[in-house]
Every structure is written in structure tokens, then in C-alpha cells.
Amino acid sequence: LKLGIMASGNGSNFEAVAQAIAKGQINAQIQVLIYNNPSAQAPIRAANRGVEAVLLNHRDYNSREAFDEKIVHTLRQYDVELVIMAGWMRLVTPVLIDAFPDKIINIHPSLLPSFKGVNAVEQALAAGVKITGCTVHLVCLEVDSGSILIQAAVPVLPNDTPETLHARIQLQEHQILPQAIALAAQR
Ligand code: GRF
């Protein structure tokens, strides 16, 4: 299965997927990393893994649709079959979603449908839940709302800060994102 990964930040989930492929746990290849933020760490990880990274800066486009058109063009250029949003911090439009029907997945740091949107970890702390987690789901137009593929639960501990809780959630993200891709690659 040919993968395209989209990331805006640190890229630890990119790393987890690359590692699972290297270990033979996923029957797939990462064709390209697309990143939108010039200071993202993800492209450094890509370089270390020998994966091509393409910077598409949303600030260079007049509309979300024009930006998504460029993304679709790039994904097609690299022959991508499954698109993975791993910390992609931009809203997407039908231009992207309709180009890859049911072939775009996202990782979100909460047990959806709780705590959609940004600051999901802070939202969980503010709500006082004792269990939160992470979700891999299909991407649809409504943010963080597509069909759920895999979830993992994570305890909230008494002295958690957003940072300590997010770190604990990320350990689980790094398990379930590769698992979801492995399942997709078996089909
Ligand atoms: C993850 O927590 C993911 O759930 C959220 O953004 C974060 C990305 O982390 N959508 P990383 O860049 O993969 O380290």
C-alpha cells in the first residue's frame, strides 16, 4: 500500500509509522511526507528515513481549496493510495476529501466523539475525565467526525499537566496508527 503522510509539527506519528514499516509490521511504503509549516520537525525525520518531504505552505495559496488542489496534485504525483493525517493542523475541503473517498485517516488525541477540535488534551483535563485516549478515524468534512477505526484508552492521573497527559496519549497513538494502517494494507 502506498502511503502519503501529512504533518504540521513534530512528526512522532510519522516516525512510528516509518518504524513499523521498517520492522515489517505494515505491508506499505511511505511515498511522500507533505508538511505545511517550514519549522516542522517532521521533514527532518523524513530525511533520516530516506522519505521525500514536500513543503506546501498554506500561506502561499489564496484559498483552502487552492491549497487542497495542490495537495491532491502532489499526492497523485507520488501515486499515493492511502492518506494519513498525523498532526495536520489545517481544515480540509471537499477538494481533498472527494479526491480520496474513504482513503484519508486521521489520528486525534481523545476518545471521539468527546473533545473534538484543537486542544483535545486540555479539554479532557478541564472536563475532569479519568479516562481519555486517542482515536484513528476516517476523515470527512466535519472535523474529527468520520467513522472510527481504532481507539485506545489512557488514564488521566491526578497531577497531570497537558504535557504529561499528551505524552502518555502519544505512546498509544504510536501503537494504534500503525495498527490501523496495517489493517488497511491487508484489504
Ligand atoms: C498528535 O497528538 C495527534 O493526535 C494530533 O497531533 C499530534 C501530532 O503529533 N492530531 P506528532 O506531530 O505526530 O508528534
Largest sheet: 7 strands, mixed
Strand content: 15-25%
* Outline: globular
Number of strands: 7
What is the assigned CATH homologous superfamily? Formyl transferase, N-terminal domain
Strand order of the largest sheet: 3-2-1-4-5-6-7
Tell me the domain tally: 1
Provide mean pLDDT, rounded.
97
CATH topology: Rossmann fold
SSE succession:
EHEHEHEHEHEEH
> How many angstroms does the end-to-end distance come to?
10 Å
Class by alpha and beta content? alpha/beta
Q: Fraction of residues in helices?
A: 25-40%
Low-confidence stretches: none
Structure annotation, total helices: 6
Bound molecules: 5-O-phosphono-beta-D-ribofuranosylamine
CATH domain class name: Alpha Beta
Radius of gyration: 16 Å
How is this structure best summarized?
The record marks 144 as: Raises pKa of active site His. The chain is of the alpha/beta class and 187 residues long. It contains six helices and seven strands; from the N terminus they run βαβαβαβαβαββα.
